[in-house]
C-alpha cells in the first residue's frame, strides 16, 4: 500500500475514533492498534482464567452453603469472562490456541495479582472487595473503549463484576463485625492485598510504554494513575465504614484536590512478580498446564467430530 494511502486511512481512522465511533473487526485499522488490542485482550482473558485458581481453592472450604454458592457462581463467572475475552481477541484474526500456548509457555502476561496466595477465608472477601473492585474501575472504562467487541465484552463483564465485589465486601463486613479472631484475619488479609491491588492498574504513567498509544486511540480513556486514584478514593470510605485500617500511614485526604493521597508503591515487588518470581507464579502456570493436558482429549474429540461431520456432508 502506498505511504500516502496509509496516511489518509490513518487520518480517517483517528477522526472516526475522535467522533466516538466504534471500530469493528472488518474496519480498516493500523497494525499497531490490532497488535495492542491482541496484547491487552489476551492478557485480560488469561487473567480471568488464572484468577479462578486462588479463589477456586476455597470453594470446598467455604464456611457455609450460602458462601459456597456465591463463590462458586463468582468463579464460574470468571471462566465466562475469559471466554468472552478470548472470543473478542479472535475477532482480530488471532487463534485462541496460539494465545493459550503463549500463556502456558510463560511468554504472555496475566495480572500479577493472581500470583499471591489465598491463606484463609478472609482473603476471599478481600479479593472480591479489592481485586474485583479494581477490575470494575478499569473495566467500566474499557466498556467505553473504541474497539467494538472489547467494549461489548466489558459491558457484560461489568454487570457480573458488581456482584463479585459486593459478595466480597459483605464477607469483609461480616468478619470485621465478628469475633476478635475474625477481625484480625480480615485486617491481616487487607494488609497483604492492599498494595498489590494498587499495582493492578499498571506502572505509573511516566513508566507505561503502552499508555500513550492506547490513550490516543481511546482504548484507554484514563491513565493508569488516574484509575488507581479513583480506586483509592472509592475504597478508603468503604474501609472506614467497616472500621478496617488500610496499611498506609501516608493516607491523607486532600481537601483541595478532593483525593486521598497515598504512600509510595513498591515497584520492585511489582516487577519481580510480573517477571515470574511471585509466591505462586509457578503453581499457577503448572495448574493451567495440567488443565490443558487433561482437556486435550476433549479438544481432539471435538476436532474429530467436526471433521467427520464435514466429510459426511
Ligand atoms: N500484571 C501483569 N503485568 C502488568 C500489570 C499487571 N497488573 N500491569 C501492567 N503490566 C504489564 C503490561 O502488560 C506491560 O507489559 P507488556 O507491554 O509486555 O504487555 C507493562 O507491564 C507496562 O505496562 P503498561 O501500563 O504500559 O501496560 P498497559 O497500557 O497494557 O496497562 C493494564 C496495563 C492497565 C493492566 C492494561 O493492560 C489493561 O487495562 N488490561 C485489561 C484489563 C486487565 O487485564 N485486567 C487484569 C485484571 S482482570 C481481573 O482482575 C479479573 C477480575 O474478574 C478479578
Q: Order of helices and strands, N to C? A: HHHHHHHHHHEEHHH
Number of strands: 2
Could you tell me the radius of gyration in angstroms?
Answer: 21 Å
Oligomer: single chain
Strand content: under 5%
Average pLDDT across residues? Answer: 97
Number of helices: 13
Task: Characterize the overall form.
Answer: globular
Mind summarizing the main beta sheet?
A: 2 strands, antiparallel
The neighbouring-strand order within the major sheet is 1-2
Bound molecules: 3-hydroxybutanoyl-coenzyme A
What are the key terms here?
313 residues; binds 3-hydroxybutanoyl-coenzyme A; mainly alpha
Question: Can you describe this structure in just a few lines?
Answer:
The protein has 313 residues and is mainly α. 68% of the residues lie in helices and 2% in strands.
Report what the structure shows:
It is a single chain. With 313 residues, the protein is mostly helical. Helices cover 68% and strands 2% of the residues. The chain contains 13 helices and two strands. Strands 1-2 form a two-stranded antiparallel ribbon. Helix 2 packs antiparallel against helix 4, helix 4 packs antiparallel against helix 7 and helix 6 packs parallel to helix 8 (180-199). The longest helix has 29 residues, at 148-176. 3-hydroxybutanoyl-coenzyme A binds next to helix 2, helix 4, helix 6 and helix 9. The site of 3-hydroxybutanoyl-coenzyme A (3HC) has 29 residues, from helix 2, helix 4, helix 6 and helix 9.
